[in-house]
């Protein structure tokens, strides 16, 4: 009973020490720092502390319970007049099964005749865990050989490299085709595929400022003849690519590929003259390609 009381007293001391730490920490922290912490993080920390305390208490109670069972077994052995022999624990049995080590008191059974200056040699077996790993490595080697070198279902490193290079080569023409487009060589395209792609880009990125039909909102109207930065296909592409920072329009050249900017430029070009409802008032200067073409011909 005295030993049990000692264990219980130790448990109480441990709990007091564990609780004193968080309380002292909370008292020493400044109020501003505590207010800046996310409530969910504070709750998570408290839950972790409580879980740690519960685990420590459970572990300590398990030790006490084991001690009580051992004391009771010793008492009953004395009452029967027999010597108490403690049974090995589950961990001891597991460890013995892994190592297959011969106890020191039984080493004479595996001692060899070799004796070098008083150093004896024992005929110990290989540890089972080592043998199991060796057998597993043999199985792995057989499977590896079959999958990689016989069946060929899994590619070797050289084959993986060749596959990756082939995929890169297959995608290369598309990259070169898109990267060769700029405001100097862009032309209007009425290809339905190009216009459909341009509409998709417009709906995802331009509707917020220019509205769905191009009637204008935060940004200007795209359906009339008035343009702030030029209404030609090259002008539209240049405006999309470089943006208008002082007006709040970002440079889409950092976001969209040249081919996508080409598609949306052609789509915006088709919005001219559509006259949607609730169109925004004209902004900028009149831009008509017919007039510019005539002036260029007269020169």
TrEMBL record:
- Give TM regions: 42-69, 132-150
**What's in the keyword line of the UniProt record?**
Heme, Iron, Membrane, Metal-binding, Transmembrane, Transmembrane helix
Cross-referenced InterPro entries, in alphabetical order? CcoP_N, CcoP_N_sf, Cyt_c-like_dom, Cyt_c-like_dom_sf, Cytochrome_c_Oxidase_Subunit
Domain (Cytochrome c) ranges: 193-272
Q: Which PROSITE patterns match?
A: CYTC
Name the Gene Ontology molecular function terms of this record: electron transfer activity; heme binding; metal ion binding
Report what the protein is called.
Answer: Cytochrome c oxidase cbb3-type subunit 3
């Amino acid at each position: 009973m005295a030993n049990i009381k000692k264990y219980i007293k130790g448990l109480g001391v441990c709990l007091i020490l564990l609780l004193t730490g968080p309380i002292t920490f909370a008292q020493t922290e400044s109020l501003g720092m505590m207010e800046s912490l996310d409530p969910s993080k504070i709750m998570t920390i408290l839950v972790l502390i409580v879980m740690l305390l519960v685990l420590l208490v459970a572990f300590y109670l398990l030790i006490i319970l084991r001690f009580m069972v051992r004391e009771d077994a010793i008492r009953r052995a004395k009452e029967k007049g027999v010597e108490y022999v403690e049974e090995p624990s589950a961990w001891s049995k597991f460890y013995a099964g892994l190592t297959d080590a011969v106890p020191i008191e039984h080493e004479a059974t595996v001692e060899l005749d070799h004796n070098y200056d008083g150093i004896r040699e024992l005929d110990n077996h290989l540890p089972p865990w080592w043998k199991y790993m060796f057998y597993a490595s043999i199985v792995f080697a057989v499977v590896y050989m079959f999958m990689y070198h016989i069946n060929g279902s899994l590619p070797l490193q050289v084959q993986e490299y060749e596959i990756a290079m082939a995929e890169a080569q297959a995608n290369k023409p598309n990259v070169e085709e898109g990267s060769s487009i700029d405001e100097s060589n862009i032309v209007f395209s009425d290809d339905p595929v190009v216009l459909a792609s341009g509409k998709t880009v417009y709906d995802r990125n331009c509707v917020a400022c220019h509205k769905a039909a191009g009637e204008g909102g935060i940004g200007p109207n795209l359906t009339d003849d008035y343009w702030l930065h030029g209404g030609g296909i090259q002008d539209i592409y240049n405006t999309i690519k470089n943006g208008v920072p002082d007006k709040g329009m970002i440079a889409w050249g950092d976001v969209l590929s040249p081919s996508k900017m080409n598609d949306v430029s052609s789509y915006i070009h088709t919005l001219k003259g559509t006259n949607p409802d609730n169109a925004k008032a004209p902004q900028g200067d009149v831009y008509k390609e017919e007039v510019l073409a005539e002036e260029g011909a007269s020169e």
